[in-house]
Write a structure and sequence with these properties.
- By secondary structure, the protein is of the alpha/beta class.
- It folds into three domains: 267 residues, ANL, N-terminal domain (Rossmann fold); 72 residues, no CATH class; 171 residues, ANL, C-terminal domain (GMP Synthetase, Chain A, domain 3).
- 39% of the residues lie in helices and 21% in strands.
- It has 21 helices and 29 strands.
- A five-stranded parallel beta sheet has the order 4-3-5-6-7, with helices on both faces.
- α1 runs antiparallel to α2, α2 crosses α6 and α12 crosses α14.
- The model has no long low-confidence stretch (mean pLDDT 92).
Length: 648
Amino acid sequence: MESTFPRLMLDHAQRRPQAPALREKVYGIWQTTTWADLALLVRRLACGLAHAGLKRGDHLVVVGENRPRLYAAMLAAQTLGAVPVPLYQDAVSAEYKFPINNAEVGFAIVEDQEQVDKLLELREECPQLKRIWFDDPRGLRNYAEAGLDSLDALVAAGQAHDAANARLFEDEVARCQPQDVAAMFFTSGTTGNPKGVVHTHFTLLDRAQAGKDFDRLTEREEVLAYMPLAWIGQNIFSFAQWLACGYVVNCPESAATVMIDLKEIGPTYYFAPPRIFEGLLTSVMIRMEDASSGKRWLFHKAMELARRVGPALMDGKPVGALDRLAYKLGAFSVYGPLRNALGLNRVRVAYTAGEAIGPDLFTFYRSIGINLKQLYGSTETAVFVCLQPDNAVRADTVGVPINGVQIRVADNGEIMVKSPGLLKEYYKNPAATAEVLTADGWYHTGDAGFLDASGHLKIIDRAKDVGRLMGGACDGAMFAPKYVENKLKFFPFVKEAVAFGDKREKVCAFVNIDFEAVGNWAERRNLPYAGYTDLAGKKEVLELIRDCVEKVNADLSADAMLAGSQISRFLVLHKELDADDGELTRTRKVRRGAIADKYAVLLDALYGGRSEQFIETAVKFEDGRSGSVSATLPIVDAKTFPAMKKAA
């Protein structure tokens, strides 16, 4: 798309000034920002930032939940030719140090006191960070730090500067070109310092437009923005596509009210990583466990039918008259109320991305009439590489290459991508840029997969994670850990799983229980427990998880390629994996190598044939304190099954 973010914003403001652009829930009431309101706010913020000294090419850090004034701040920076750099609001202050120093950031706009405190804590290590503005003034009345002020003050300064420089805003918008840098997103940094992925207006908006065309999106869509802006997935859906389409973006009041706000808004276009869909399903299963026996029977019978015919109906395939009638009755009594309870009754298109989603989980949503589809992309590709077309959705693929995208598979099985949406570079890291971008413009994704006969892309796992078993009965068998983990995470009792097996004789796993789901299960059985660690070690809970593992093994045995990936032994960890403890990324991807190193004693016990192992682990609490948690973890053997032979 040959335009820029500020020009698109102004175009909407000119054509439909009173149409809603953004909504934010404040004290339980939805407040609307029209396109005309937004244009005026962006103008004043841009003039205020110019007055404060923000120049073309400078970087502006933005930290906070999805808030209209933070969106406006990003647009204001882009107007001036500066580069917004959104960072994760739940990161600890030390995680901001490298991005701020790497990008030589001198200006920051943040949401509230929590983010102000984290940046002030870094002042000595980031001396160039001179100015910080905050959106929410609560708790900040008595702060007297140099360079700290409110967004209200910045807006007021911008209004005065605009009056004294009448053409400043228009001139800066005119100077902004599609090939200018529009934003920088820092990667998770799973193997070292994060890398700053540089994108232009063109790369982001070209992919936003391609996604818009693919799913026929219009300005009438409603979107709920609740994931971090620092994650490019949320940024594309609620910022780039928002401006490309002109639809309404709704910002929840807080993380605690997302489910309530989801039901109130009833989005038509919905985007979430698999863990959100896992959480929604877990909440459904918990409620069903508490229901009467009659309601449970009806639910399970209805879901049997839904899994059999629901996906076929979604894809427009022929279904028998009796099954079609039965499904309509199920929609009236079960599927419709269930979609409504999830807040997804109005969804026309829903996408999941960020990680592979388990096929069972994926099928569940399509079975009940939610048009959930998968997409494939990354920060470096501006998200949209492959999308699943309506009526051609399969759980084991991530769709077809969309407009402008070429895909090839390297000799080692790695997916290579050429697209108008590829990153410009990794900031100040030419060596890393050269590693992922070939001279002729192909991007190394790091994912292993292949294009099937119908042109759909299948992803097996991260190329570096796909391995082989060595020794034992399954010598040489393929091991795809993410595939195994996703099958386990379909069960509502399993929150996270980490599978190991590369260059080993068998597969073993760490499991995190879902504390809410398993706690509810335990309470209904009058099983007392005193916190997560105690519950995770109960023999009844271990048997519950063993049942889940063995069902996964039975399923894997039917796949000739992955039958060797069945889990022989497992343990339930004594603590939940946490980003603050270095075990997950901020997008909640498992740091497999870090976990293997941190819990090496547990891995040794699993593969050494031990029946239990003591461990003590340092943890960080939400209030910043450090402590430790210890336990003797039982190690459980699981039944494995012979690989089923394919029918001739």
